[in-house]
Each structure stands twice: as C-alpha cells, then as structure tokens.
Amino acid sequence: FTAIDTDEQAEKDDFTPGVEPQPTWCPGCGDFAVLKALKGAMPEVGRTPEETLLVTGIGCSGKLSSYFESYGYHAIHGRSLPVARAAKLTNPGLEVIAAGGDGDGYGIGGNHFMHTARENHDMTYIVFNNEIFGLTKGQTSPTSPKGHKSKTQPSGSAKDPVRPLTLSLASGASYIARTAATNPRQAQEIVKEAIEHDGFAHIDFLTQCPTWNKDAKEYVPYTDIQQDDEFDFDVTDRREAADMMYEAENRLYEGEVLTGRFYRDEDRLTYGEEKRKTGEMPADPLAERYFDEDAEWA
Ligand code: SF4
Fold this sequence. Notes:
Helix 1 (31-45) crosses helix 6. 50% of the residues are buried. The chain is globular and about 65 Å long. The chain has helices at residues 31-45, 80-90, 102-108, 110-119, 164-171, 184-196, 238-252, 271-277, 285-291, and strands at 52-56, 71-74, 95-101, 123-129, 132-133, 139-140, 175-180, 200-206, 222-224, 257-264. By secondary structure, it is an alpha/beta fold. The longest helix is centred in the N-terminal third of the chain and has 15 residues, at 31-45. An 8-stranded mixed sheet has the order 2-1-3-4-8-7-10-9, sandwiched between helices. A two-stranded antiparallel ribbon has the order 5-6. It starts with 30 loop residues before the first helix and ends in a 7-residue tail after the last helix. The protein has one domain (28-277): 3-Layer(aba) Sandwich (Rossmann fold).
C-alpha cells in the first residue's frame, strides 16, 4: 500500500467506490451509520482515498471495505489488527483504519486487540458492537449480556460480557470512545477525532442488529457524557476515565446508553515513534527499501 501524498482536498463522495456495490446490510442495520460517519469524517481530517488503508475483519461489518473507496484489505477472522499494524509500520504516511465486529475484535481477535492497544500503534480501530455474531445468524458473542438467548445458548448465556472500554484502557489504548449508530452527529465527530489522534484510537460503536438481536436495545435514548453535567470528569485522567467506563458499562446492561469520549492521552509516543527514537526503525522504511539496491526482499 503506497500512500500518495496529494495536495488535493477530498470530498465525501470521493470515498464512494466508482463502481458502487449496493450494501447488502439489512434494512435498519447500524452498520450503515459507521459507513456514513467514516465518509463524513475523512474530508474533515483532510485525507484522500489514496492516503488511506481500511482493513476489515470477517462479519457483516467486514463488508465496510467494499463500500468505502480507499486501499482495502479484507483480512481473515479476528486478524485485521496485525495487518493494519504491519502496513502502518512499513508505511507511516498511510492513514490506517481497522474495523470489525465485537465477535471478530473482542473474541477471535481479542489477543491482537489487547497488544495493539498496549503497543499504542498509530491507527483507528472501529468495533461494530451489536452484542451478537450477525453474519453467521445471531450466535452469542463476547458482548452478549448474561442470560441472552441464542441458538448457541438456548437457555441463556451463563457468561458475563466483555467490558470493551475497560479492557481497552487496561490494555493501553490512548484514545477510547463509545458512540452509537443512532447518534450520527456525535459518531462523525468521534470518528474524526479518533483518526486525528496520534496513537491507538479505539471506538466501541454500538450498531443495532434488527435481524438477529430483536430483543436487544436500539441504543436509544442515549446520553452524551460530554453534554450532561451528571458526568463531569477529566478524560485525560486514567483513574477518572476508569470510573466513568465502569459506570457506562454497568448502565448499558441496565438499558441506559452513555456515549462520548472516555479517555485521551495525547502525550504517549506511538509504537513507530518509539522504534524510530531508538534507531531500530528508519524514519521512512518504505523509501529506504525502495532506494537501497542491496536491500533484501522477503
Ligand atoms: Fe446488520 Fe444484523 Fe443484518 Fe448483519 S444480520 S447486516 S448486523 S442487521
């Protein structure tokens, strides 16, 4: 993936593929909102399709890379983050975005999620969280509430769900937010912020699945924690952010949806910056490989 640095200003429509495939998502699916937010945010960030790589995992969410104009890579299940990391380290000029579902990201790829956050790789990771596996017809996922009934857990899940925000903070992500498909204005703002953030930016994007999670909440009404005086906390303070996440994750399973920015650390170096600081990695690895005739290619 070769980032082409252009002076051109992209418009929202530039991120729609020339041969536009019609999304096969079900009517009312929250995934449409992620695509809309991403297309809306990119021109505001000032990036073009030629400067952007979107890596997706497996699931309904994985189709995102087919409906978004940029470099794209549809990775195997749970493995979007290793691909995204390699691309960003090799070509620091690329704007790298990874995306996938809660099953893909918090289950099958959970280990990659934890370590990509820990190492603070400079990328945006959007997790479509609909609390089930959608593409494979509604099985229980890592974020399904305890007691949730599905074909794989007909008597109800006996497991407590993963807490994505808390997990992300404990792992080391330097930007953590939650938004919802039902709140498109906030969603676009958060996607923009996450892309502009230098470091690992994780968005837990609540996306309703009306087909297989009929009993689940539609994620309305929601509360924007930055707009409500009840939730006055410092997003740059790890301890206050942890308390706020704990509160939000408890309330979600009681039917109350809290969205917004939960944590931001602007000071921490990214993994690539750490590597370049020690001299272990060249400033522009791609350029050196291109122009070093003696370089060994794998
Ligand atoms: Fe969306 Fe669910 Fe349909 Fe998949 S199955 S496209 S997640 S509504």
